[in-house]
């Protein structure tokens, strides 16, 4: 017989595990970009991993219009970097929130 507490713990544990799996997949997928000659660039890793989580959280996405080709590419690169940094912050927040929810499900 499965109790409600066990269901809640299982649900929170699955969500936490899926979040870790997403980060691991993105880290492995972007490994050729953030690691060169055995040297790790952790800032680039944070931006690349955080981008999928942060691009939807950006309130203002600067449109690369009326800047010309150079300015448009620069604004697009700025959008990607800002989205990655926002995503890195959102990812850390999600990890902490999922961990707190998991601990509350276990101890409550």
Keywords:
single chain, 108 residues, two-stranded antiparallel sheet
> What is the N-to-C order of secondary-structure elements (H for helix, E for strand)?
HHEEHH
- Describe the main β-sheet briefly: 2 strands, antiparallel
Structure summary, number of beta strands: 2
Derived structural class: mainly alpha
Q: How many helices in DSSP terms?
A: 4
Mean pLDDT: 87
Strand order of the largest sheet: 1-2
Strand content: under 5%
**Helix content percent band:** over 70%
Radius of gyration: 18 Å
How many angstroms separate the termini? 19 Å
Judging from the principal axes of the Cα atoms, what is the shape? Answer: elongated
Model regions low in confidence, pLDDT < 50 over at least 5 residues: none
């Amino acid at each position: 017989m499965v109790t409600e507490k066990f269901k809640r713990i299982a649900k929170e544990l699955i969500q936490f595990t899926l979040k870790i799996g997403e980060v691991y997949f993105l880290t492995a997928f972007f490994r050729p970009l953030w690691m060169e000659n055995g040297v790790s660039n952790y800032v680039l890793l944070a931006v690349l991993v955080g981008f999928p989580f942060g691009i939807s959280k950006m309130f203002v996405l600067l449109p690369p219009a009326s800047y010309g080709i150079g300015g448009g590419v620069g604004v697009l690169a700025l959008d990607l970097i800002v989205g990655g940094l926002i995503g890195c912050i959102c990812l850390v927040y999600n990890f902490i929130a999922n961990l707190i929810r998991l601990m509350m499900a276990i101890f409550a």
